[in-house]
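Aim 2 progress update. The chain analyzed this quarter is reproduced below.
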Amino acid sequence: MSAYEAKKYIAYKLKAKNEHSIHSPFVFKLYTEVIKNKEKYYAYDELAKLRAKLLRDKTIIEVTDLGAGSKKLKKKRTVSEIAKVSVIPKKYGELLFRLVNHFQPKTILELGTSLGLSTLYMHKASPKAELISVEGCPNTHAFAERFTGSGGESPPMGETDLTSFATRKGSQRGPRLVCSPFEKFLSEENNHKYDLVFLDGNHTYEATLSYFKILLKHVDSNSVLIFDDIYWSPGMTKAWEEIKAHPSVTVTIDLFKFGIVFFRKENKQKEDFVLRY
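Predicted structure tokens:
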């Protein structure tokens, strides 16, 4: 944790509330039954074993950072080094699992596959969902395809209609991993709608806001956006504050690492929650 993150974490701890401060029935239920749920789910042990496998892996990957990049890692990194620093922590991986398990989205988009562990947290929570995960680094993408078992899931060469391809694969589809800069992928998306989006890549102010504004065309009132590392840097925090203030956003939940965004039309007044996690 950087000095900036440590400072913001102290401020978060002083400000964060528990369920007794929540007057929204929707947020109260989500917080008490999902976010704070300590139940051990069916996939946790399997996912823990996969995490341990990554932490032992000494394969060297030459990483192409298209975004802000890691604060701690060199260009050539072992998988275990990447796993220690960049892979989603267990606490938040399990939260991501519970959120997907709760909302049961039919369509999921992940921007920032990394090694593929967060992808599997979401896939295990909703195996029938169409899950597309986008990674900009070719070498990291190749590793994630092998790790998630998605190497055989790619569409034929030259096919760009990801939606029709996923539909043809049937109900028990695996994650669809795409190697592409985020901007390029999003620009080719046309009118595809997403029920849940997890954004964990290119931690800069400009890129985060750009992705958010593009994604507004691909969400509806029931969609959920989850932003990772909202206090990673001053730029990310600034982007988070502007996202919260956007007129289409009706509810936000700040859990320090995750910022969760809703567009619920049922909420006539904007509500922003900072909750303990």
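The mean pLDDT is 88. The longest strand covers residues 130-135. These observations will guide the mutagenesis experiments scheduled for the next reporting period.
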